[in-house]
């Protein structure tokens, strides 16, 4: 690893939210299996993961 890559890797952060299908989260929300199927099937462009 070159020094520039090492410096960059030390400053990156990731934040997100995860939930399980069919299980209530801390806010008592419930996501049912297939909840996003239509939206994902209609999407033409890839999801922006950055």
Describe the structure.
It contains two helices and no strands. With 50 residues, the chain is mainly α. It has a domain at 15-44. The protein is flat and about 35 Å long. The model has no long low-confidence stretch (mean pLDDT 81).
Give a summary of the structure in a few sentences.
By secondary structure, this protein is mainly alpha-helical.
* Rg over CA atoms: 17 Å
Strand content: under 5%
DSSP, total strands:
0
Number of helices: 2
Layout of SSEs?
Layout: H1 3-11, H2 37-42
Which terms would index this structure?
single chain, 30% helix, 50 residues
């Amino acid at each position: 690893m070159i020094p520039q890559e090492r410096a960059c890797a030390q400053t990156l952060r990731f934040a997100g939210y995860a939930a399980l299908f069919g299980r209530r989260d801390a806010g008592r929300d419930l996501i049912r299996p297939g909840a996003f199927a239509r939206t994902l099937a209609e999407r033409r462009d890839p999801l922006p993961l950055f």
